[in-house]
Amino acid sequence: MPAHRATSLDVAKLARVSRTTVSFVLNNVEGANISEATRQRVLAAAQKLNYHPNAAGRKLVSGKSNTLGLVLRQSPEQVFADAALLRVMLGIEHAVSLQGYHVLLKPVDPEDSSGYVRLINENHVDGIILSGPRQDDEAIVALHNDGVPIMLIGQLPGNDIPFVDIDTLASAATAVRHLLALGHREIALITNAPLSYTSAQQRCNGYRQALEEAGLPYRETWLREGAYTPASGFAAMADLLKLPQRPSAVFIASDVVAMGAIQALKQAGVRIPEDIAVVGFDDIPLAEYCDPPLTTMHLPAYGLGWAAGERLVRKLLNEDLDQTGVLLKAELVVRRSSTAN
Known about the structure:
Layout: H1 8-15, H2 19-26, H3 36-49, E1 67-72, H4 76-81, H5 85-97, E2 102-107, H6 114-121, E3 127-131, H7 138-145, E4 150-153, E5 163-166, H8 168-181, E6 187-190, H9 198-213, E7 223-224, H10 230-240, E8 249-252, H11 255-267, E9 277-282, E10 295-298, H12 301-316, E11 325-328, E12 331-333
Parallel strand pairs: 1-2, 1-3, 3-4, 4-5, 5-11, 6-7, 6-8, 8-9, 9-10
Antiparallel strand pairs: 10-12
């Protein structure tokens, strides 16, 4: 009789951690907030059990499409403008291909949820990864309640749909605290998306939390909504510059949106950061090379995609997810757009 082949569950039991932690450690998932002691314990357990992740793919259930739907609640224009999305997609593709699955990309108009409902009803996909959920998305909740395998990138508060996300509120607060530490007290906000999207609302909540901690009022007149694109950032910043009292700094909750906002500042002859400091969110590749280089929160985009794909496959294989949600870590990257030093 062949010897028992060690599984990730065996490693998890020996290391006294969850299977999610084992997966994140052995696959070096970006943004996984795991202590070095825990990491070494997992590695030692895997070595002792001679465990290696199975990269050849699992035997899939017959009668399935072996395809997962990646649903994006954005217009095609917004999808193509989202520079962080490519890294998310790469992470998903790499994670699910190890298990023999493919990914079908499905942009869905923000006002129409029937697109991903049809994906399931027409039996095109075995499960859905939904990126950018909206707070009013009743259709995805109904699908989840009907037993459709779903994994969110982002969160829908008030339900138990599995998700992968960063601590968006805390990350946004960190970005604003950076500006507060530099002495700014008049800080505006341009969101990454309309506030009907949970990611935008959470980033706004983090902004408000940091102001409240500093004893500063929240001014609705200094809030503008972005829409994933540079054009929306340009329009939002141009509008802020019309105010009788300009802010001394602005937190822009998306680097892509920030690119347009920076162009609006330049066209108005506003110096960055001397007149208005700017902090973004995502740390897209262009952030380091724009003029001036953009201070931003580094989003573990590949790690978010990888974790979402890996967890949805495990759900399809009826494996225990250990926990409903997983939060990855974002980190502040300071560049010259917030400080001239």
